[in-house]
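pls design
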């Protein structure tokens, strides 16, 4: 595992962009572009990432980038990969499709599923800020249970879709779950994906101060708490072999109990007013999932 001080300096995400202060996207994007050493072409649909990218003719990201229609990210990436193959440049650069949770788990899922079934040759990275943030915080299929959005005034009642598991069910060579606030975990997973072929899927939790209602200075602390409480789990599945990574692996190894979810829920305005019943349901969901992950880690599959 790469050590923090060994991470290369980020050269591809330039100072200054139009994202909100404290946005998790920029933190993650630094490691993603560094792991690919800028030798990449991105396909990006409408989302907050396009705001980070900037408006033509200016950009804060120094890599080639194609803005594509909302549902078509994976189809566009498949086309870019085919173009590189046809021109004999597949080994020179990686195609990176990068989209939000709404653009991945809801509106883009059919193109993504098709690309996974064909095992098209690109990395698909979903940054998950857990709602449609760019249009003012509407609920997505990946919004967590209990979260208030502009379309779930009383808190969302359903559990979020488990996108990494959906992608794993396609039998693709690489699936990973990471968090933007763990730079070495992001760097290592993108580096591993870079050296593989076929459809590689990475899911990156990305704290959002504006949509989750917390102070910009708390982005890293809240991202870490999500892992400490088991709401976000760091893991990878390489050709069917499962392992926990980073902080999640340490927690499982020590057999330490996770922090209670109330510690995480209490840090954000979107969970304000949750009743004890809902909190109990969220805790039970986390406990059951965590036990499953620990068992898979022990079994290695
Ligand atoms: C076909 C289509 N429908 C709706 C929109 C409006 N739209 C633009 S960005 C966005 C939200 C995207 O949410 P997500 O994918 O989670 O990314 P985030 O904004 O949260 O980063 C929506 C609904 C659009 N651009 N195109
Ligand atoms: S709304 Fe959230 S994800 Fe979007 S730019 Fe602001 S902090 Fe980042
Ligand atoms: Mg989103």
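designed seq:
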């Amino acid at each position: 595992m790469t050590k923090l001080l060994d991470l290369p300096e980020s050269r591809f995400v330039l100072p200054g962009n139009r994202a909100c202060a404290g946005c998790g996207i920029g933190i993650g994007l630094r490691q993603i572009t560094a792991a690919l050493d800028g030798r990449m072409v991105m396909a990006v649909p409408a989302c907050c990432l396009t705001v980070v990218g900037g408006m033509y003719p200016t950009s804060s990201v120094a890599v080639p980038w194609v803005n594509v229609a909302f549902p078509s990210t994976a189809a566009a990436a498949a086309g870019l990969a085919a173009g590189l193959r046809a021109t004999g440049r597949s080994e020179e650069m990686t195609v990176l499709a990068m989209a939000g949770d709404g653009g991945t788990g809801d509106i883009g899922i059919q193109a993504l599923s098709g690309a996974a079934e064909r095992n098209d040759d690109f990395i698909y990275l979903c940054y998950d800020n857990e709602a449609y943030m760019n249009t003012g915080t509407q609920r997505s299929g990946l919004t967590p249970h209990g979260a208030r959005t502009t379309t779930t005034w009383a808190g969302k009642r359903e559990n979020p879709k488990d996108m990494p598991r959906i992608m794993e069910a396609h039998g693709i060579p690489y699936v990973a779950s990471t968090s933007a606030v763990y730079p070495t975990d992001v760097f290592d997973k993108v580096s591993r994906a870079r050296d593989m072929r076929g459809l590689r899927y990475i899911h990156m939790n990305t704290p959002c101060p504006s949509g989750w209602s917390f102070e910009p200075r708390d982005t890293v602390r809240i991202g870490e708490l999500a892992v400490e409480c088991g709401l976000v789990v760091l893991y990878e599945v390489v050709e069917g072999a499962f392992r926990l990574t980073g902080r999640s692996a340490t927690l499982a190894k020590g057999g330490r109990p996770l922090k209670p979810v109330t510690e995480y829920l209490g840090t954000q305005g979107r969970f304000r007013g949750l009743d004890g019943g809902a909190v109990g349901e969220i805790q039970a969901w986390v406990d059951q999932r965590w036990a499953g992950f620990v068992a898979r880690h022990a079994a290695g599959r």
